[in-house]
Amino acid sequence: MTKMKAVVYDKPFQVSIQDVQKPELQHPNDVIVKITTSCICGSDLHMYEGRTGAQSGIVFGHENMGIVDEVGAGVALLKKGDRVVMPFNVACGHCLNCEEQKSAFCTNVNPGFAGGAYGYVSMGPYQGGQAEYVRVPFADFNALQLPKGKEHEEDFALLADIFPTGWHGVELSGFKPGESVAVFGAGPVGLMAAYSAKLRGASEVYVVDRVPERLQKAESVGCIAIDLSKGDPAAQIKKLRGGREVDRGVDAVGYQAVTADGKTEQPNAVLEGLIAVVRPTGGLGIPGLYVPKDPGAPDSNSAKGYITFPFGKLFEKGLTVGTGQCNVKKYNRYLRDLIIAGVAKPSFVVSHNLSLKDAVDAYDKFDKRIDGYTKVLLHP
Ligand SMILES: NC(=O)c1ccc[n+]([C@@H]2O[C@H](COP(=O)([O-])OP(=O)(O)OC[C@H]3O[C@@H](n4cnc5c(N)ncnc54)[C@H](O)[C@@H]3O)[C@@H](O)[C@H]2O)c1
Ligand SMILES: [Zn+2]
Ligand SMILES: [Zn+2]
To answer: pTM (2 decimals)?
Structure first.
């Protein structure tokens, strides 16, 4: 077989299922993985909506899990038949950043750029896994082994990105057990950040969004839902706390943040909210995506990635800020073990398990955040 089915980006708001070249081993360190699950991510929507430089023809899919099918001659640890999940980052394992556990900023996999990923614009020549097969470079480093069988498939699939990314968002904020946290965004990443904060011993976790099904999911894991459509979220949170701010804040929205009515984009909406709601000397974790170039930006500064925010207030409060892509390798093995031990069950965010051929409709509904489309898992 030399062809396979894959989800291909055609143009803004249109993907299609096409026959594309099945990946082959290109280097002795590669493996080919037969996909069992590949998830749709909020990050895919930035490309889907034409809000990046993504060109048509790109195969989407950076949250990939499956069974090792072919093994390059230089691969030491993996065998055909192994069940694996891949971090969305493609990384070499040997450069300075990889050795310092910053595998999201690998300098060897994507010339001229620090960081690589499957199926993503600017992130290197790595075909996505919303398909039947995916090629995994530096496979011993990039594939995390899982217990054989079918158990925990939904939970393990979330180790490719959103569970570690949510955890990372909390980490970036400088969080310590006992502290209170405000998470902006109850998409998959925000829900995972909120869940991670609970797992890590937060005293109170507030979650801001305007999509009712998503806020309900936040409540289902013991968080306090803040409905953005009911007014300024920072003011709502402080009111609930007798005027006090929270210790930490997480931006799980990014540059396509919307105003309270949901109708207009305001790229700095979440940054402003976080600076208002976090206490002096607290911290902000910003895993939400910001881009240096936005073809659909609401204003000319945002088009260049220049987002205005109250830096004066940030300085006055002595806030710390951490941001960037998640170094999935730093966390995925431990989070896998929390799943195996029954301590963590991140799959509460999963709303749909669909066949790969249903991807066209799934992108449409997930993009509109309707019909409870919170996290979609595709199975070839
Ligand atoms: N840093 C990383 O490694 C990494 C990894 C994965 C995703 N991301 C990014 O994280 C962000 C979230 O991803 P997702 O999959 O959860 O996406 P998503 O689009 O499904 O969720 C975003 C949520 O934010 C809500 N929202 C919009 N404006 C808001 C506002 N002003 N206040 C509060 N909530 C608001 C939306 O209603 C939506 O539910 C995206 O920008 C994505 O690209 C980053
Ligand atoms: Zn993702
Ligand atoms: Zn590297």
So the answer is: 0.97
Q: Which of 217, 211, 206, 274 is nearest to 240 (CA)?
A: 206
Tokens representing 372 are: 């409870």
Q: Is residue 86 a contact partner of residue 143, using CB atoms and an 8 Å limit? A: yes
Relative to the CA of 233, which ligand 1 atom is closest? 32
Burial of residue 260 (CB within 10 Å: 0-12, 13-18, 19+) is: middle
Residue 207 has phi, psi (to 5 degrees) of: -130, 125
Kindly compute the dihedral angle of the four CA atoms of residues 378, 198, 213, 273, in this order, to the nearest 10 degrees: -110
Whether 286 is in the pocket of ligand 1, judged by its Cβ within 6 Å, is: no
Domain with CATH 3.90.180.10 in the chain: 3-161+326-379
Q: Which residue's CA is the closest to the ligand 1 atom numbered 29?
A: 257
42 lines ligand 1 (CB under 6 A): yes
Give the distance between the most distant pair of CA atoms in the chain. Answer: 64
From ligand 2's centre to the CA of 244, what distance in Å?
Answer: 34
Indicate if ligand 1 lies below 6 Å from the C-beta of 51.
no
**Residue extent(s) of CATH 3.40.50.720 domains in the chain:** 162-323
Pocket of ligand 1 contains residue 189 by CB under 6 Å: yes
Mean pLDDT in consecutive groups of 10 residues from the start of the chain, 380 residues: 94 98 98 98 96 94 98 98 98 98 98 96 96 98 98 98 98 98 98 98 98 96 98 98 98 96 94 98 97 91 95 98 98 98 98 97 96 96
CATH topology of domain 162-323: Rossmann fold (3.40.50)
Any idea which fold 3-161+326-379 has? Quinone Oxidoreductase; Chain A, domain 1 (3.90.180)
Q: Is the CB of 174 under 6 A from ligand 1?
A: no
Q: Which atom of ligand 1 is nearest to the CA of 104?
A: 3
